[in-house]
Amino acid sequence: MKRINPGSGKPFRRGDIDSQGNSFWCYQKNILSVDGYFKELWIPKEKVLLYETNLVNGYKKLVVNVERRK
To answer: Tell me: the pLDDT tens digits for 40-68?
Structure first.
């Protein structure tokens, strides 16, 4: 079950900010908390600022294929 955002009266959505400045990312639907709600993943405000600066600077995550040794 999704927890209700007290400010909007609807479940939390990505980008909602809490009182400490953390940003809501997602519900972890395979993990339930003690009170029966899905576990929530919140991103600290420092990491949000890092993501924003990377977006402005054009940073993209690149994956390099590495050959396996026999």
So the answer is: 999 998 998 888 888 888 877 766 666 76
Nearest to 17 by CA among 49, 53, 64, 57: 49
Q: Mind listing the pLDDT tens digit for each residue in 4-42?
A: 999 999 999 999 999 998 999 999 999 999 999 999 999
DSSP character string of 21-61: S-EEEEEEEEEE-TTSPEEEEEE-HHHHHHHHHHHHHT---
The ranges assigned to domains in the chain are 1-70
Question: What Å distances lie between residue 30 and 13, 19, 69, CA to CA?
Answer: 18, 26, 36
